[in-house]
């Protein structure tokens, strides 16, 4: 009986540890907070991969024309508490998975209602709430690690390698 209780206790501890979020030191978890131009809070959470000698678009996402989770591990989350405009297009209040598609300097930002995704493996276009086309600019400096920023004027930047992809939240 004693060994059965020990086994049950060990099994519970093992199961509990698998249910906890594990940090990925190669792609650490990041949180970003900002506000839209009209004062609505913006919250973004993601895991930040690093280039580590690989070539973006060849060895490392985003791959041209393919949906990318805009980070590593779980899909990047974008949340606003009130309806906003993204580059002039309506986005209802809510939490979204933030995906991107890169084609050279032409990028598409996707706000998808299916927020609980691991990567982009089960991405469904039918769950897209908003698509915004933007032009990537050459970054001021090479971003070895993915960085997403949100200013208090509603400017969101995705900095990855030589690219600076941005959109405005009003």
Entry summary:
The chain is mostly beta strands and 170 residues long. The protein has one domain (27-168). Helices cover 11% and strands 49% of the residues.
Radius of gyration: 19 Å
Overall pLDDT metric? 87
Number of helices: 1
Secondary-structure-based class equals mainly beta
Can you give the helix content as a percent range?
10-25%
Shape: globular
Low-confidence stretches: 1-21
Strand-and-helix sequence, N→C? HEEEEEEEEEEE
Strand content: over 45%
Number of strands: 11
Largest sheet: 7 strands, antiparallel
Q: Determine the N-to-C terminus distance.
A: 64 Å
The tally of domains stands at: 1
Describe what this molecule looks like in 3D.
- By secondary structure, this protein is mainly beta.
- It has one domain.
- Helix content is 11%, strand content 49%.
- The chain is built from 1 helix and 11 strands, in the order H-E-E-E-E-E-E-E-E-E-E-E.
- The strands form 3 sheets. Strands 1, 2, 3, 4, 7, 8 and 9 form a 7-stranded antiparallel beta sheet that branches. Strands 5-6 form a two-stranded antiparallel sheet. Strands 10-11 form a two-stranded antiparallel ribbon.
- It is globular.
- The model is unreliable at 1-21 (pLDDT under 50).
